Amino acid sequence: MNTRWRTAWGLLLVLVTGSAHAHPHAWIDLRVVVVFDTAGELQALRQTWVFDPSYSQLLLEGMEAARPGLDLEPALRQLRQRLLGNLRDYDYFTELRRGAQTLAIADARADALSWRQGRLYLEFEVPVPGMRPNAEQPLEYRVYDPSYWIEVLHDPDDVIHLQGDHWQDGRGCETRLEPPRPEGRLVAYAATLNRQQRAPMDDLGRAFAERVSIHCGS
Amino acid sequence: MRPMKATSTTPCTATAVSRLRWAGLALLLAVWLAPALLSANPFGLGSGGGPGPESSVESGAAPDEGAVPWTTLERASNWILQTQRDLHRRLTLGLHQLDETPTAMTAGALILASFLYGIFHAAGPGHGKAVISTYLLTHRQSLRRGIGLSVAAALMQGVTAITAVLVLIGGFGWLARDTIGQVRNLELASFLLVALLGVWLIGRGLRALWRLHRSGTTPTPERGLVLHANTADHQGLAATVTPGAPRFQRLANTTGTPGHPLRGPAGPRPIAAPDCGCGTPHHVDPNLRGPWYATVFAVGIRPCSGAVLVMAVSYLLGLWLAGIAAVLAMSLGTALTVAVIAVLAVQARDWTRRLLQPTGWSGLRYAGPLIGLVGGGVIFFVGWTLLQGTLTLEPVRHPLGL
Predict the structure, then answer these.
(1) With an 8 Å Cβ cutoff, are B309 and A25 in contact?
(2) Among residues A177, A217, B8, B163, which is most buried (max CB within 10 A)?
(3) Is the pTM value of this prediction over 0.95?
(4) Interface predicted TM-score of the whole assembly (ipTM), two decimals
(5) Which tens digit of pLDDT belongs to each residue from B103-129?
C-alpha cells in the first residue's frame, strides 16, 4: 500500500470510529533554564512545569487544597513525591539527544512544588553529562507526555535562559526552538482518542513536541 | 440540494421549508466559521505558544532558514491544532477567571468560550456524528426531524455530563478525578447501544425486504402502484392496490397514528407529505419514532469528556451553576455543528432519490430497504468496533495520576 492509500484508509477509519473532545486534555507551560558550570560546561536542565488551572485543581483535590489560609505544605510535599516518583519511570518526560545518540536520564534533583495563583508549579533539575555542545553536535531536548494526554509547550511568555554561560565574542551558546510539525494523519488520529485511552500508539506526544537544540561557538 | 426544483416537481416540499433550509444552512455555516475568525483576533488569549511557520523563536536564536517549507496539509493541521488549543485554553481560563472575579462579564466570556468550543470540537471526527449521519443517509427522515435528531442527541450529551457530575460528586461525594475516569462506563454503554441500534435497523431492513419480496411474487397488474403512481393520498394507496390491500392496511395501522401514518410528532401538518417519491414502499413508516429515539439515546448517553471536565472543575470551585450553563452552551454549539452535518445528510439522500426516481427502474423499490439494511450494518460496525476497542484497551494510569 502506498502512502496515499494508507492516508485515505486512515482517514476513513478516523471518520468511522473517531470521537470528538480528544487529546490533549490538559497543558503544561514549560520554563527551562540551561545551567552551565564555571568551566562553561553544560550541567543540567532546570525545568519548571506550570500546570493549567483545572489540572492543578484536580491534582490537589481531596487534600484540603487550594483555599487561602490553609497550610498546603504537607499536601504539596506528598503530591511532589508521588509526581516525581511516577515521572522517574518516564524519564521526567524529557528526551535528551546529542547527534544521533540518546542520552540516559539520571534522577532529578532540587525538586519543589508550589501553589501560586491557582496553579501548581513543579520544579526540578535533570542532570546533563558535562559537555559543551558545538554546531556539529548540538544538544537537543524535547519535553513531552508520550500519551499526548497533556500538551507540554514552552511558556510563550518566557524564554529559555542560559545560566552561567559567560563566554563572549561569538563563543557563547545559542538555543533554537523548532515548533512541532505533526502530520495531518496524526492530528486526526489524536482527535479520535477517547478520554480514557492512553494513546495506544507509542510516543504519540513526540510528534507534537517542540524540539530545542543548544549549541555553542568554539 | 435543489429545493427550488423540488418545490416544482414534488409538492411535498413547501416553499417555506425550502427557504428555511437555505437560511438555516447559511446561518449554520457562518456560526461554524466563527471560532476560526475569533481565534485570529488580536484580543484572543493567544496563549497557544504559537508554533507555526511564522512564530518567532526564543532566546534570540536565528530562524531556521534551511528548514523544509510547510505543506498545505501541514498548515491546515497546524491551524486546527492552534484553534483547538486556543479554545481549550479560553474555556479553562474563563472558568478560573469567573472564580476570581465573578462578574457578568467573566460569566459571559465563559459561556461564549464554551459555545465556540462546542462548535469547533464537534467539527472533528466523532462516533456520534458517524451514527447520526449514517442513519440519516440511509433512512428517510424529514429535514426537521434530522435536525431535531442532532440537536436532541447533543443536548442529551450535555445533560448526561451534568447529571453524572452532580450525582457522583455532589450526591455520592466522589473525587472529581475518579468521576472523570468513570466516563468510560457510559462510553461502553453508548457503544453497546449503537451496536444494538444497528442490529435493529438491519432487522427492519430485512423485514421490509421480505415483505416486498412476498408482495412482489403475488401477480398484481398494478404492481407499479405499490410505488408511487398514486401520489395523491397515502391512504388511497392501500385502496388502489387491491390485491395487497389487507396487508398494507394492517401495516399502516400498526406503525403510525391510525389514519395519519406519516404525521410528524409536533405539528398538525404532515412533515413529510405521503407523496414524496422516495423509492421506498411505505410498508414501514420511515418517520417512525422508535429508531429516532433510539439514536438520540445511544448517542446522547455518552457525555462529551470536555463537558465532564468543565462540570467537575466548576463543582470543585463551587461554581456548579456556571458549570451547568457552560455545559449547556457547549452542547448548543455541538448541536449546531451536528445539525449542519444532518442537513447535508438529509439533502444528499433527497438528492439521490430524486435523481434515481424518474428512471422508473423496477429494482428501485428494493433500494430503500436495502440501503436501510446497509446503514444498519455500518452503524453496527461502528458500535461494535468501538466496543471492542474500548474493552481490549485497559485504561492505563497516567503517571501524573489523572
Answers:
(1) yes
(2) A177
(3) no
(4) 0.81
(5) 999 999 999 999 999 988 877 667 788
